[in-house]
Each structure stands twice: as structure tokens, then as C-alpha cells.
């Protein structure tokens, strides 16, 4: 028997480090070749790392939330044959750079060492013998994907009470959805538990981006839009599409995407990135001819922004179909890194949950974001009296360092004009 060392692979696209999002196996588990063993975060994408060989898990490198460089030790397997590593890590091996909460006190304290860490280096001869190293397992931590853990948290369920039906006892989404807690079967009881959840993975990346956004002065402009003509057109197009199996249903977003394409043609400075990397010289505005439209999408793990590429070249039906595909991939955790990066301007919408007005936060380094609020019947002045009309508010935020209030207002008014008179969306001039 030998020891096989698995290192963090080069995922490409210049990625230098990854964050451990989830261990998919535990010490002692038997793994097959190409079986996923860990999920790691790169930017906003989660990538599963497969085992290059079959074997039994000896140790996992660190706890979820730890950032490891490409090439760093990820896992050790016991394998048939000679393997490719020593049975224990060499004493000079550097520890991975932690970004998770610090580990508990050393083994000399009352509490034992955290079991997630790799086995310690061989002690010097002069040191007293210590208790045998504990296996690198995560005690009482059921196997489940990040999206399954997020679903359990949303429902207030303890995964340790759920029996997994997946390989190796892994808890599946269906196990969580079908679980009926004892309290639901026999009346209510007070829940006195307190849980501390590490802010890691996608949630931490979102937190970091939001923190960075606080350094950018935002200006938000809210405008009311009367959308009766747009809703009539949308209903007619959907009725026509119903006769064609497979045709995408049109929501508001494809029309808004087309309106944004038309509006940024007049104001290209809003389809841009504001770059402030001091190492590359003075701040600059990078304007794009192509409109790569970010579509903010809520997933079980948090908010991600899949990208509708070349929105300027797509028709309404193509736009609707691609938005639906991207949203499904994002929610299912299958969106690629390429599909989650490279946007030039972003739409954010809470759909039916939307409020009267919101204050969207910029998706840096972009300089504009368009927020869509829910459509509601409100009084509308016709010139002779009030009538109930479907009304929707647009909430648009801009980077005030490069977008003046006047320019932002011109952009919002252009969007309002296009949405209130949807025939303009198809005009050539």
C-alpha cells in the first residue's frame, strides 16, 4: 500500500488560489477514480475536483473556508502500489493560508486539536510523546452539497437528523425536501438552539464585493414607467408563441434587455468598466461595443450574475431562451466560470417580490445597474382624470465618479420612453 498526494489542480483562466467550499468525502471513505472529492470556489463558480486515482481517504487538507494555492496539498489517499508521497507530510511543508476562523488552542489545551487539519509533522526526539493523531474527519458532519446545506438552513433543519440516500450516505436535495421533523408530526415546541455559521464560499465572496462597493459613490435614480402597451404586446407575443412548442415564454426581462441595448447605443459610457488599478496607471474608463448583460440571479447558495453575451445580437425569443438557460444553470450550480464573468452592465430584479423602489448596488467594475421593481395597478393621470394602469418603477444606480446625475437621468428617461412605447424597441433608427 502507498500514499497518493492530491494537489489543488490548475483550473485555468489565471486562477492562483481556490477556497474549499465543501468536502464531498471524509477520512476513511473509499473513493473511485474520477469521483468528486471536494467542491472549491473560484470567483463565483463552484468546481468539483475529481479523484485522479481510486483509494481510501487518509486526510483532508483543511476545513471548508480555507484558501489554498494552486499546487497546494488537497488530500491524501491510501492506494494500491507505491503511491507518490510519504506516509506523513514533510516537516518543512508550509501550512495553507487560512481565511476561515482560527483553529482552537493547541493540543496542550483542554480541547483536542481540530480534526480537519492534516496529521502533524513527526515530533522531535526530545519532545514528550503525544496522544495519537486523530483522523482528519469532520465529526458529526453529514455529507451534502453546498446547495443542499443551504436548503436545510432555509427550512431550519439539522442535517444530522436526516438519513442520506445518496452514495456513501450523502444527503440529497430530495432527502431534505421529504424530511418531516418530529415537531411537525406532534405539535409545536420551542427551538432554543443557537447556531454560528461561518461566512465562507460564495457568501464570503458576495460580502467582500459588497464591502468594496461601499467605497464607490452611488447615485440612484427612480422613475415610474406606465407599461400597459408593453404588457399588451407581451401577452400577444406569448399567445402566439404558445402555438409553437418549445418557444420561450417572454417575461419583462427580454424587453428590458433590448431597451438597454438601444439606450447604451446613445450613451456608450454606461456600458463600461471603471478601472482603478494603481499598478496599471491612472484610472480609466473601458467602454465596450458589445453588450454583455449581467442578469442577477438568486440561488440556494446566494446571488450570482450569469452573463447574457452579445445581447445586441439577439432577438426577443433568443434573449428569453438564453436568460432561462442561464438562470437554470446558475440555480443548479452548473454554470461555468465563463458564464458567470465578463458582464458590462447588469439587470437586477426581485420579480413579484420586488418593492416599490430599491437602491441597487453596482456590480463592480461596472458603472451602471438597472433595477426592476414589481408591476402594480396604480392611479395614472390621463390629462382629464385618473385611471388604473399597470405601473413599474425603474431603480437605476450609477458610479457617480464617472456618471453625472444628468447623464444618468437621460439614460433612465430613454429607458422609460422605450418601455412605454415598445414599438421603438424594433425601430431601426
From TrEMBL:
<comment type="similarity">
    <text>Belongs to the 2-oxoacid dehydrogenase family.</text>
</comment>
<dbReference type="InterPro" id="IPR001078">
    <property type="entry name" value="2-oxoacid_DH_actylTfrase"/>
</dbReference>
<dbReference type="GO" id="GO:0031405">
    <property type="term" value="F:lipoic acid binding"/>
</dbReference>
<dbReference type="GO" id="GO:0043754">
    <property type="term" value="F:dihydrolipoamide branched chain acyltransferase activity"/>
</dbReference>
<dbReference type="InterPro" id="IPR036625">
    <property type="entry name" value="E3-bd_dom_sf"/>
</dbReference>
<dbReference type="InterPro" id="IPR000089">
    <property type="entry name" value="Biotin_lipoyl"/>
</dbReference>
<dbReference type="InterPro" id="IPR023213">
    <property type="entry name" value="CAT-like_dom_sf"/>
</dbReference>
<dbReference type="InterPro" id="IPR050743">
    <property type="entry name" value="2-oxoacid_DH_E2_comp"/>
</dbReference>
<dbReference type="Pfam" id="PF00198">
    <property type="entry name" value="2-oxoacid_dh"/>
</dbReference>
<feature type="compositionally biased region" description="Low complexity">
    <location>
        <begin position="123"/>
        <end position="139"/>
    </location>
</feature>
<dbReference type="Pfam" id="PF02817">
    <property type="entry name" value="E3_binding"/>
</dbReference>
<keyword id="KW-0808">Transferase</keyword>
<dbReference type="InterPro" id="IPR003016">
    <property type="entry name" value="2-oxoA_DH_lipoyl-BS"/>
</dbReference>
<keyword id="KW-0450">Lipoyl</keyword>
<dbReference type="InterPro" id="IPR011053">
    <property type="entry name" value="Single_hybrid_motif"/>
</dbReference>
<protein>
    <submittedName>
        <fullName>Lipoamide acyltransferase component of branched-chain alpha-keto acid dehydrogenase complex</fullName>
        <ecNumber>2.3.1.168</ecNumber>
    </submittedName>
</protein>
<dbReference type="Pfam" id="PF00364">
    <property type="entry name" value="Biotin_lipoyl"/>
</dbReference>
<feature type="compositionally biased region" description="Low complexity">
    <location>
        <begin position="106"/>
        <end position="116"/>
    </location>
</feature>
<feature type="domain" description="Lipoyl-binding">
    <location>
        <begin position="3"/>
        <end position="78"/>
    </location>
</feature>
<feature type="compositionally biased region" description="Pro residues">
    <location>
        <begin position="91"/>
        <end position="105"/>
    </location>
</feature>
<feature type="domain" description="Peripheral subunit-binding (PSBD)">
    <location>
        <begin position="143"/>
        <end position="180"/>
    </location>
</feature>
<dbReference type="GO" id="GO:0005737">
    <property type="term" value="C:cytoplasm"/>
</dbReference>
<feature type="region of interest" description="Disordered">
    <location>
        <begin position="85"/>
        <end position="142"/>
    </location>
</feature>
<dbReference type="InterPro" id="IPR004167">
    <property type="entry name" value="PSBD"/>
</dbReference>
<dbReference type="GO" id="GO:0016407">
    <property type="term" value="F:acetyltransferase activity"/>
</dbReference>
<keyword id="KW-0012">Acyltransferase</keyword>
Amino acid at each position: 500500500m502507498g500514499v497518493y498526494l492530491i494537489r489543488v489542480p490548475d483550473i485555468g483562466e489565471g486562477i492562483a488560489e481556490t477556497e474549499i467550499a465543501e468536502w464531498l468525502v471524509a477520512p476513511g471513505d473509499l473513493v473511485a477514480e474520477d469521483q468528486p472529492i471536494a467542491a472549491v470556489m473560484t470567483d463565483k463558480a463552484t468546481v468539483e475536483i475529481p479523484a485522479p486515482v481510486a483509494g481510501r481517504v487518509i486526510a483532508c487538507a483543511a476545513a471548508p473556508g480555507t484558501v489554498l494555492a494552486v499546487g497546494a496539498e488537497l488530500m491524501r489517499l491510501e492506494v494500491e502500489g507505491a503511491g507518490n508521497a510519504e506516509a506523513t507530510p514533510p516537516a518543512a511543508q508550509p501550512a495553507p493560508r487560512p481565511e476561515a476562523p482560527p483553529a482552537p488552542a493547541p493540543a496542550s489545551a483542554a480541547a483536542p486539536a481540530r480534526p480537519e487539519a492534516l496529521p502533524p509533522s513527526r515530533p522531535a526526539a526530545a519532545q514528550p510523546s503525544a496522544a495519537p493523531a486523530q483522523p482528519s474527519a469532520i465529526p458529526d458532519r453529514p455529507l451534502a452539497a453546498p446547495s443542499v446545506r443551504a436548503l436545510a438552513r432555509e427550512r431550519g433543519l439539522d442535517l444530522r437528523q436526516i438519513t442520506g440516500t445518496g452514495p456513501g450516505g450523502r444527503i440529497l436535495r430530495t432527502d431534505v425536501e421529504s424530511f418531516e421533523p418530529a415537531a411537525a408530526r406532534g405539535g409545536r415546541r420551542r427551538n432554543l438552539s443557537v447556531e454560528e455559521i461561518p461566512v465562507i464560499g460564495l457568501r464570503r465572496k458576495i460580502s467582500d464585493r459588497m464591502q468594496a462597493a461601499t467605497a464607490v459613490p452611488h447615485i440612484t435614480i427612480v422613475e415610474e414607467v406606465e407599461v400597459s402597451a408593453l404588457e399588451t404586446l407581451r401577452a400577444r407575443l406569448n399567445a402566439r408563441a404558445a402555438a409553437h412548442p418549445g418557444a420561450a415564454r417572454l417575461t419583462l426581462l427580454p424587453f428590458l434587455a433590448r431597451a438597454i441595448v438601444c439606450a447604451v447605443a446613445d450613451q456608450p459610457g454606461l456600458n463600461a468598466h471603471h478601472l482603478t488599478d494603481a499598478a496599471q496607471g491612472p484610472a480609466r474608463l473601458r467602454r465596450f461595443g458589445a453588450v454583455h448583460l449581467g442578469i442577477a440571479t438568486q440561488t440556494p447558495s446566494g446571488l450570482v450574475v450569469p452573463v447574457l453575451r452579445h445581447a445586441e445580437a439577439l432577438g426577443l425569443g433568443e434573449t428569453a431562451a438564453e436568460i432561462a438557460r442561464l438562470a437554470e444553470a446558475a440555480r443548479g450550480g452548473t454554470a461555468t466560470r465563463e458564464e458567470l464573468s465578463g458582464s458590462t452592465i447588469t439587470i437586477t430584479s426581485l420579480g413579484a417580490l420586488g418593492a416599490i423602489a430599491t437602491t441597487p448596488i453596482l456590480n463592480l467594475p461596472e458603472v451602471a445597474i438597472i433595477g426592476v421593481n414589481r408591476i402594480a395597478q396604480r392611479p395614472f393621470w390621463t390629462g382629464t382624470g385618473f385611471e388604473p394602469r399597470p405601473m413599474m418603477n425603474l431603480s437605476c444606480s450609477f458610479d457617480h465618479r464617472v456618471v453625472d446625475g444628468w447623464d444618468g437621468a437621460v439614460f433612465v428617461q430613454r429607458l422609460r420612453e422605450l418601455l412605454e412605447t415598445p414599438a421603438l424597441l424594433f425601430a431601426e433608427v
